[in-house]
Amino acid sequence: MEANDSFIRSDEVVAREVGGETVLLDLQAGTYFGLNETGGLIWQYLGDEPRKFSDICSHVLAEYDAPAEAVESDVAALMKDLIANGLAVQKDG
Asked: In sequence order, which residues have a C-beta less than 8 Å from that of residue 59 and are 6 or more positions away?
């Protein structure tokens, strides 16, 4: 994933926080997904405007004391998973 790759939440998803976990419902597929605390932080940050990969990583690094390489790897994995499941969309730079 490149630093300038941008992502946005899908319009077909609703989210709620339940017991420290963010639960996503894909309205189109009728499927639920659960995100842990860090995934929920990223989901909230994505919001309704495109966010650059580098900005998402910086946001996570500001909240957690973790190595940058680990954060980048984890954020990339989550974004790939969200896109694969139709929960987020990659936008053109």
From this structure: 41, 42, 45
pTM of the entire structure?
0.90
Structural domain tally of the chain?
Answer: 1
pLDDT along the chain (93 residues), means of 10: 92 91 92 94 92 97 95 96 94 71
Q: Are 90 and 9 in contact, with CB atoms under 8 Å apart?
A: no
Domain containing residue 72: CATH number: 3.90.930
The H-assigned helical ranges of 1-93 are 37-46, 53-63, 68-84
